[in-house]
Amino acid sequence: MQTLSGISDITDQAGDAAVAEYQPPKPMPAHLLDWRIQVGQLSIPVNGMLLAENSGWFYRHFSRMEEEAATAAAGSAPAVQPPPMEQRVVRVDYSPPEGLQLVLRLIGCTGQAGEQQRDEECGLMQRPLGPEALAALVRAARHFQAFGILDLALSEPLRQLNLDNCWSYWRAAVESDWPLLQAAVQSWLAANFLPASGQLEFLRLPAAELVSLLRHRQLNIDSELDLLDPVQRWLDARLGAELDRETPAALLRCVRQGRLTPAQAAEFNRSPLLLRCGLSRAAELLAGASSSLSSEANEARVPHEVIFVCGGWEGLQNDPNFGPSDAVQIFNYQERAWARHSQPTGPVLGCGHAYSGCVLLGHRVYVVGGYVQNRATGYQGPTAGVKAFDLRRQRWEPRANMHHQRNYVSAAELDGFIYAVGGHNGRGRLNTAERYCPTANRWKMIANMLQVRSDAGCAGLQGHLYVCGGFNGHQFFSSVERYDPLADQWTYATAMQSVRSGVSVSVCDGQLYALGGNNGNSRLATVERYDPELNQWSPMPQMLTQRSNFSATLLRGEIYAIGGWSDQTNTTVSVVEKWRPGPAAAWEMAPSLPLPASANCCCSVTGLSLIESLLTPADPPPPPPPPPPPPPPPQQQLPNELSSSSN
Description:
By secondary structure, this protein is an alpha+beta fold.
């Protein structure tokens, strides 16, 4: 049996400096194998050598015992004789004894025989460990300095936490008096705060613990006003109880007023919660507040989801550097800002990319095909190449090439596979399609589409792949094809109400949205929604900007339209807008890209551990772009085939 790992990895402010004593300087004698631990009414057989290797407390105990035996035997016998079996007992005064029993079992030193029993002990943490048992385990592991056990204990709640037990685990973490466990559970609660606050146990939370949670920088909320409803419910649960004015005020100070928009600030000032504090305006909350609270009021919280934008045809068309970009740009909705990475030290693409597909699959962002400009090799043109950004390792990795070069490709994820369809191989447009298996790192051809098309929108929805609109070199399409992977067959779905090439699509709440595009005469701002149950399209509120060849994704329940080519400027745009899908909702402006770009691609990435390192911009903010040229007169012709279908 090997000594548990992670011994030196866990220290905290509670006096775990005894880790330095944890590794024994010399091996224990063989007669320590068979001992018993007597704690309360429990008598537990243990392997004393293994116990000493994994517990600083027991190591010191056995060391003292050996020293005393050696001193007693000095001058009478050259070797220390082991005590008889009936005397090999260590009596421990510790409560509750079940905590020590758990520690001994997890060390794997209990019992005197049998691989089956040892396997059961080693697999103990594979079974759920309740909150009370976890608290007892942590207290015992820290008391007996079994620091390797703390590694396991720290991972336990992360495996077991859910909305039904989260507050019980939080109480266990508090009672364990171990800051690292408290931080781990609190981080989970912060990430799931709004649904967790709907649990009954939330209303029993002590005020100080609630304040600590509301101040957490990782609190997962869309707006600071999201705090008002949980605070209101928590206070209402105390109606009739004595509650001073300072408690509601302390809770409301956790609302970061510096992050409110003017409209949100006005709403906050109208909140009846202010009256419970005896205040007329929210600004009075911070009067006399501590410096840490005052500075927090202007700090953005950490986002749990970002938009990951890759490449694009960047700049204005008259710029000397107008062309495919290798930059990666990250949108932080909490900061309301973009972090641009274009330096070699950042997560750059390695060569310029445009008209590529971008797909999130697992913990990797895949960039599929498109048009590349490789300054190192001098090659520029369509590519079959695929690369993936590993969000855990923070690096790009090459993946298997597609069977076809695909510029103006359409790509999407469906049921754990990536699909790449259509596009242009440098000689002509395609109706071919292929599917990528990430575990095998292999592409496989599937049935051809019914039409040749590039510049289409593509998305997976309810077990089918939808390909919308596009261009065949002569004709712009409104047609929609649906692929059934079980039958390996394409069929037509109901056509869109508008012809759309360079269209972007997004899925929200089981419905498909087609945004913008080029109808052969002009770029579009129109939006339509497809209901797969009805096989029917219906018009939705228009975007604020006419655009084609832009990227779109869903973030926090809102669809973002990013960049593109617009007739309103007759060039690329940096304009970003967002919309929460619904027939009555209107589009609104969002922070613009640092530089105008069309033919970019994007996806949304969720998970704080995956995205936190991407949030700091590697580049200084670019200078403002020059004003765009005036729009062309109405009679001006569209650009040639390449630009009209693909800008």
